[in-house]
Please model this.
Amino acid sequence: MVNAKEWIGLDIHFLILALVAYTFKSTHYIIYHKVLKIRCGFFFNKTIAIDTIYKISESHNPVSAPAASLDRLELF
Model:
C-alpha cells in the first residue's frame, strides 16, 4: 500500500490495529465488594455478583469470555 500510495487503505489498517491493541490493553477484571467487574475495550462492560456464580470451569473457547488468551475460565 505504501508503494502504491494507497494512504486510505493504510490508514484503515492502522485504525484497526489501534482498536485491537486498545481492546487487549484495556481488558481487566476487578473484584470489589462481592462483585466482579469485567471490562474489555469499548464494547464489553459487565458486573456479576460473586454470590450468583455457581460453577467455574476451564475453557479454550474464544466466545466464553473476554480475555487476551485462550486459557480462560468460564463462569456459570
In short: The chain has a mean pLDDT of 83. The CA atoms of residues 64 and 74 lie 6 Å apart.
